[in-house]
Design a protein that fits this description.
By secondary structure, the chain is an alpha+beta fold. It has 2 helices and 2 strands; from the N terminus they run ααββ. A hairpin with a 5-residue loop joins strand 1 and strand 2. The radius of gyration is 32 Å and the shape is elongated.
C-alpha cells in the first residue's frame, strides 16, 4: 500500500513540476479569439508594453551594477601598467623640448 502511495506522489510531483516549467513558454498565438476584436489586441499591446518596461528596468539595474563594479575594479587591474618614455624633439623654431611617450605594457601573470 505504501509503495503505491509513493508512486502516486512521485507522479503528482513530476506532473506538477512539468506543468510549472511549461507554463512560462512563450506563445504568440491569440488563442481562440479573433485578433480583430479590440480586447485581445489591447490586452496584448498592454502586456507587451509592461514586459518591455519591466525588462528595460531590470536591464538598467543590472547594467548600472556591472558598470559600477567594472569602474571600481579597473584601477586595481594588475595585468597592465603604463610606462612613460621621454623623447627629445626639436620644434620648427629651433627649441629642444621633452615629449612624453606613454606605452601600455601587458604584464605577465605571476
Amino acid at each position: 500500500m505504501a509503495m503505491k502511495f509513493y508512486r502516486l506522489f512521485l507522479a503528482g510531483i513530476v506532473s506538477l513540476s512539468s506543468g510549472l516549467l511549461l507554463v512560462g513558454c512563450a506563445n504568440t498565438e491569440y488563442g481562440h479569439t479573433s485578433p480583430y476584436h479590440p480586447g485581445p489586441v489591447v490586452g496584448k499591446a498592454v502586456g507587451n508594453a509592461a514586459g518591455v518596461v519591466a525588462g528595460n528596468a531590470a536591464g538598467l539595474g543590472v547594467g548600472v551594477v556591472e558598470g559600477a563594479a567594472a569602474g571600481v575594479a579597473a584601477p586595481f587591474d594588475p595585468s597592465y601598467h603604463m610606462v612613460r618614455h621621454w623623447k627629445t624633439e626639436t620644434t620648427s623654431d629651433g627649441r629642444v623640448i621633452q615629449v612624453p611617450v606613454d606605452i601600455l605594457v601587458h604584464c605577465c601573470p605571476v
